[in-house]
């Protein structure tokens, strides 16, 4: 309605506005504001030019913050064009690194009682799963493509039966002195130990669930110490 009044009162402003579009939206709006001042005797309280300018300025920081967010959360295993890559750890300093991971295997009462009594047809479930977990930790780089081949100084896998919910808790610990962490080695240990439990017990029941695989603790390296707090 306001623009219609302006163009009716001053046809020249319409021609000027049309001819200025090619020189930029903001320049044309500024010219229109000048014409509005000539028609009404004073500039509008909130000019279209300032509104457009403010809108432009308000949008700029939003774009910048979005870009910053993307940059700060880049995945180290992804290259600039999105391809998978192995992280170069050569610039890093060597340090003592440890990691502890855990998982839970829900057995059910029937399987739990058989494992507790060591009556499974395949043999000693807990011992076989323990050995499988230790072996898996040493093979992590062969199982997970972008993991580094780490010289482990220590691997330990412990299994504990829980009578209250007929489950089995598996805890795996890995240690090394080097330029990259051992979190994946610890998590691989408990994962394969859990799968081994399933394999040893599946003849008795298929209702076995491997759950809550997670990193419990890690130390060493640039990121320092971490504890699972949930």
What does this structure look like?
This protein is α+β, with helices and mostly antiparallel strands. It is built from eight helices and five strands; from the N terminus they run ααααβαααββαββ. 45% of the residues lie in helices and 20% in strands. It has a five-stranded antiparallel beta sheet, covered by helices on one side. Helix 1 crosses helix 2 and helix 6 runs antiparallel to helix 8. It is elongated and about 100 Å long.
What's this model, at a glance?
Helix content is 45%, strand content 20%. With 230 residues, it is α+β, with helices and mostly antiparallel strands.
Relevant terms:
230 residues; alpha+beta; Alpha-Beta Plaits; five-stranded antiparallel β-sheet; 8 helices; 45% helix
Q: Which structural class do the helices and strands define? A: alpha+beta
Number of helix segments? 8
Question: What is the terminal separation in angstroms?
Answer: 59 Å
Give the CATH H-level superfamily of the domain at 95-222.
Answer: Molybdopterin cofactor biosynthesis C (MoaC) domain
Low-confidence stretches: 13-22, 47-72
Shape assignment: elongated
CATH topology of the domain at 95-222: Alpha-Beta Plaits
Q: Fraction of residues in helices?
A: 40-55%
Strand coverage percent: 15-25%
Give the beta-strand count.
5
Q: Indicate the mean pLDDT.
A: 79
For the CA atoms, what is the radius of gyration? 33 Å
Biggest β-sheet strands, sense, barrel = 5 strands, antiparallel
CATH architecture of the domain at 95-222: 2-Layer Sandwich
Domain Molybdopterin cofactor biosynthesis C (MoaC): 86-221
Pfam family, one: MoaC
Biased composition (Low complexity): 49-59
Catalytic activity: (8S)-3',8-cyclo-7,8-dihydroguanosine 5'-triphosphate = cyclic pyranopterin phosphate + diphosphate
């Amino acid at each position: 309605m306001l623009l219609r009044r302006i163009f009716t009162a001053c046809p020249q402003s319409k021609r000027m506005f049309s001819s200025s579009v090619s020189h930029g939206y903001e320049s044309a709006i500024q010219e229109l504001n000048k014409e509005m001042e000539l028609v009404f005797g004073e500039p509008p309280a909130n000019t279209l030019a300032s509104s457009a300018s403010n809108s432009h300025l308000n949008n700029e920081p939003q774009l910048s913050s979005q870009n910053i967010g993307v940059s700060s959360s880049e995945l180290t295993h992804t290259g600039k064009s999105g391809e998978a890559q192995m992280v170069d750890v050569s610039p890093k300093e060597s340090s003592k690194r440890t990691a502890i991971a855990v998982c839970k295997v829900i057995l059910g009462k029937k399987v739990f009682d058989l494992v507790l009594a060591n009556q499974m047809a395949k043999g000693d479930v807990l011992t076989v799963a323990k050995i499988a977990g230790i072996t898996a930790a040493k093979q992590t780089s062969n199982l997970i493509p972008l993991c580094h081949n780490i010289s482990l100084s220590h691997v330990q896998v412990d299994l504990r039966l829980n009578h209250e919910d007929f489950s089995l808790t598996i805890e795996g610990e890995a240690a090394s002195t080097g330029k990259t962490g051992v979190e994946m080695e610890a998590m691989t240990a408990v994962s394969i130990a859990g799968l081994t439990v399933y394999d040893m017990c599946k003849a008795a029941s298929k209702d076995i669930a491997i759950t809550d695989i997670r990193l419990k603790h890690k130390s060493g390296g640039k990121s320092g110490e971490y504890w699972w707090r949930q």
